[in-house]
Amino acid sequence: MIKNLLVIGDSFTYGDELADRTKCWGNLLADKLNYGIINRGVVGSGNIKMVRSLVEEPVDNYDLAVIAWSGFDRIEIADEYSVWETIPGASKNQYRIPDQSTKFRSTLIDYINRHHVDEYLYRQQYLVQIILTQSYLKYYNKKYVMLDTFINHKSPIRFDEKNKDLIDKIDTRTFLGWPTESMQEWTVGTPTGPRLHFLEEGHQIVADKIYNFLTD
User: Fold this and answer.
1) Residue 107, pLDDT score
2) In angstroms, rounded to a whole number, what is the distance separating the alpha carbons of residues 153 and 43?
3) Cα-flanking dihedrals φ and ψ of residue 44, to 5°?
4) pLDDT of residue 101
5) Pick the CATH number of 4-73+118-215 from 3.40.50.1110, 3.65.10.10, 2.60.120.10, 3.40.50.2300
6) What pLDDT shows up at residue 99?
């Protein structure tokens, strides 16, 4: 019976800007492992959405999970129209506002840009989600790997003594690259698309990194 790999992440896991999404790192890794693939990468996904996607996936569907954490400051918001994401300081563009009925979102985005608290976002939307996710996967006896898509470790908040209580709870044996590496660094210098997603060469690098981590 074939085993299945579940990958969860944002646009870099989805394979955004690839000419052929079957060349995304999840598919390449599954091929190397001789696993089937369940790709739950979602363009624009933040960490809250990723955890929800994991919990909603039936545990019998997969044998190995790879969680590629997004930026700690990606905020999920729900209103009567939809669930959407905003990133403080980078979300004034109107593509996140589908029509005039949701034009009010620009006011909320502006407020968040001015008044968000990185320290809160880092603890609650990143560290806490890592700890909850590893506990969930261990409870169901699922093999897993975590890694960072973005350079969350570049934030000085990671080394703030106030976060030591949570950082000490992270199982670094299952976190590829912790505490100083991410996909972004592994793929520096490789070709990217117009929206700066790495392309086939970068996806191969990521797949090889995870494969080597699993098989060493």
Assistant:
1) 84
2) 22
3) 85, 5
4) 63
5) 3.40.50.1110
6) 61
